[in-house]
């Protein structure tokens, strides 16, 4: 049974729809709905296919409502999602050859269900976002993705693409953190190389040991290299950050450890990094760290000095000193032990701008609170470092 009031359906075998528009729900129950290649069907309402039915569309199917199917086989050649309200796509079985996102700016399209296969996906309008929720999506070709058009992921639903020796771009991000594109290239060429990517917001994964920083989830079936570019929108700022202090950590099941880079170049507003070759069983979660992944409200500001929190702090190995001078001044930095003894005095020279200093583990022989004192001209500021042993 097909529920709608028009008489443009021929009621035998497979149904053929001619060019028309529907303004109510299209429900297909216990039969097959066939749309031929010369037909453009616009439905300004939801489409529902029950478990005993199927939808085969060779023409254009344009929908402003939800598209949901429990059908046994759904093949859609050209699906256009349009309108001013959010839409849900949930296909239990089947695939889409061409999916066009034509929603008004900033109106989301949501995926539901286990997985969806799309041969060609088009972000037609700017500020088009496809939100995956828990759904994996396999994509062959992508068009017009950018910092304004991308996949919103949560680390459960992932974007999957086939790989080659040429990088495939995974334009993923989140509602809160924005666009985080990753390029992945295979280092083998067997023809079955594949990867899935998601960007995880804090709180969307259960292991508390991974802390609350957003991370990438990457699943690969062979050795890969992946690279990232970024801009000022990704919380990297050229006025305080040294590009060489960026680092990529991977979760090894117990702790975050350094992944390492082949290249790290550019500038902060248009930087670029590429990892070493990574094997499938090495890491699943990745985190880009910098001294700016801190609460900037904790920055100590004096007339000439901005003291950023040391990173990491607390720490079990070494840590780092990060500060900025607005004008050239004589700077002395002193490190004191938990019992008040001077351990190290460094800098003691005229400096300006941003500065970074590694403090190695051998400066901290025991656990406890260490004092870090900065003397900048007539200004003096002191902060605490906490060393602990596991």
Give a written overview of the molecule.
The protein has 390 residues and is mainly β. It contains no helices and 34 strands. The protein has strands at 2-3, 15-16, 20-22, 26-28, 32-35, 40-43, 47-49, 54-63, 67-69, 73-83, 87-91, 95-103, 109-111, 115-123, 128-131, 136-143, 149-152, 159-162, 168-174, 178-186, 194-200, 215-220, 224-229, 247-251, 256-258, 261-265, 272-275, 285-289, 300-301, 305-308, 319-336, 342-359, 368-376, 379-387. The strands form three sheets. It has a 15-stranded mixed sheet that branches. The radius of gyration is 27 Å and the shape is elongated. It starts with a strand and ends with a strand.
The radius of gyration is 27 Å
Biggest sheet architecture: 15 strands, mixed
Total strand segments:
34
| Shape verdict | elongated
Span from first to last CA?
67 Å
Attribute tags:
single chain; 390 residues; mainly beta; 15-stranded mixed beta sheet; 13-stranded mixed beta sheet; 0% helix; elongated; disordered N terminus
Topology of helices and strands:
Blueprint: E1 2-3, E2 15-16, E3 20-22, E4 26-28, E5 32-35, E6 40-43, E7 47-49, E8 54-63, E9 67-69, E10 73-83, E11 87-91, E12 95-103, E13 109-111, E14 115-123, E15 128-131, E16 136-143, E17 149-152, E18 159-162, E19 168-174, E20 178-186, E21 194-200, E22 215-220, E23 224-229, E24 247-251, E25 256-258, E26 261-265, E27 272-275, E28 285-289, E29 300-301, E30 305-308, E31 319-336, E32 342-359, E33 368-376, E34 379-387
């Amino acid at each position: 049974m097909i529920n709608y009031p028009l008489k443009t359906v021929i009621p035998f075998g497979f149904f053929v729809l001619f060019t028309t528009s529907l303004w109510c729900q299209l429900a297909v129950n216990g039969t097959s709905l066939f749309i031929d290649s010369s037909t453009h069907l616009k439905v300004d309402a939801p489409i529902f296919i029950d478990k005993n039915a199927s939808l085969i569309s060779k023409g254009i199917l344009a929908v402003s409502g939800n598209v949901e199917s429990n059908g046994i086989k759904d093949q859609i050649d050209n699906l256009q999602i349009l309108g001013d309200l959010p839409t849900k796509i949930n296909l239990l079985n089947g695939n889409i050859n061409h999916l066009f996102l034509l929603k008004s700016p900033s109106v989301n399209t949501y995926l539901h269900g286990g997985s969806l296969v799309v041969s060609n996906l088009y972000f037609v309008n700017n500020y088009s976002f496809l939100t995956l929720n828990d759904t994996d999506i396999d994509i062959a070709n992508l068009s017009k993705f950018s910092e304004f058009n991308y996949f919103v992921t949560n680390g459960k639903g992932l974007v999957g693409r086939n790989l080659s020796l040429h990088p495939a771009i995974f334009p993923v991000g989140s509602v809160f953190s924005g666009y985080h594109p990753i390029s992945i290239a295979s280092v083998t060429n067997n023809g079955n190389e594949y990867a899935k990517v998601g960007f995880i917001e804090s709180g969307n994964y259960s292991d508390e040991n991974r802390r609350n920083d957003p991370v990438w989830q990457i699943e690969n079936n062979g050795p890969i290299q992946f690279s990232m570019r970024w801009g000022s929108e990704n919380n990297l700022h050229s006025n305080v950050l040294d590009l060489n202090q960026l680092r990529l950590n991977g979760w090894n099941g117990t702790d975050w450890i350094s992944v390492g880079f082949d290249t790290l170049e550019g500038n902060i507003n248009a930087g670029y990094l590429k990892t070493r070759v990574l094997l499938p069983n090495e890491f699943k979660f990745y985190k880009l760290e910098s001294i700016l992944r801190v609460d900037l409200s904790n920055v100590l500001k004096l007339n000439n000095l901005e003291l950023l929190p040391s990173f990491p702090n607390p720490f079990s190995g070494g840590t780092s000193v990060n500060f900025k001078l607005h004008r050239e001044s004589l700077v002395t930095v002193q490190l004191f032990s938990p019992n008040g003894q001077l351990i190290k005095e460094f800098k003691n020279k005229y400096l300006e701008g941003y500065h970074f200093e590694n403090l190695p583990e051998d400066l901290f022989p025991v656990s406890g609170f260490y004092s870090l004192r900065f003397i900048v001209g007539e200004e003096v500021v002191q902060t605490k470092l906490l060393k602990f042993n596991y």
